[in-house]
Design a protein that fits this description.
61% of the residues lie in helices and 0% in strands. By secondary structure, it is mainly alpha-helical. The chain starts with a helix and ends with a helix.
Length: 186
């Protein structure tokens, strides 16, 4: 048991695939004299039982063939376990409309990387190799739309629009603004 505990503290954070085996083996062996699943996980493995449940959910969903961090699986598992639960209710809004877990929001790079690992491992590999950003990978995967920030400085805003869309699209955009403005003024 001390070997498992050492493994969980040293290696599990970077590669948590063995967590499935540890928990399944503990269950098959009546929690190895710890009396319960929670005590086996907390005292035997030295891990937070709630975090392990999230990680196991992520591992069950993804079934990774390569090393995957405990943090990624916890984020993914928290997201999956949270699906289907009722929202916070009227007047009790959360900081993010994608997920309700503080720190690991649906717009966070941690969650996005976990989702890329699950759905687009090719792009996740590029992110880990620092070839592209997490946001760029999410846009390529279709998880997000590309956004552009327009400042109040008109020449800068125009330059941003031309750079983003090209001259022809920018011209059509300007025409559309004028058409809509004429409609509102009349």
């Amino acid at each position: 048991m001390s070997e498992r505990h050492r493994f969980c503290t040293q290696y599990l954070p970077k590669d948590c695939r063995n967590l499935l085996f540890f928990v399944e083996d503990g269950a098959a062996n009546q929690w190895l004299d710890f009396g319960s699943r929670e005590r086996y996980i907390a005292e035997g493995l030295g891990l937070d039982p709630e975090m392990v449940e999230w990680a196991l959910e992520g591992l069950h969903r993804m079934r990774p063939e390569q090393a995957v961090s405990l943090d990624e699986m916890v984020v993914l598992g928290r997201r999956e376990i949270g699906r289907g639960k009722p929202g916070p209710g009227r007047g009790h809004k959360t900081g993010d409309n994608v997920t309700r877990f503080p720190g690991d929001r649906g717009n966070s790079s941690k969650y996005t990387l976990a989702r890329l690992n699950r759905d687009r491992p090719d792009l996740a590999a590029k992110v880990r190799a620092k070839e592209i950003t997490t946001n760029a990978a999410a846009i390529q995967a279709g998880f997000r739309r590309q956004t552009v920030t327009i400042t109040g400085d008109l020449p800068r805003a125009a330059a941003t629009i031309v750079r983003q869309w090209g001259r022809e699209q920018a011209r059509r955009f300007a025409e559309t603004i004028l058409e809509k403005t004429e409609y509102v003024e009349s």
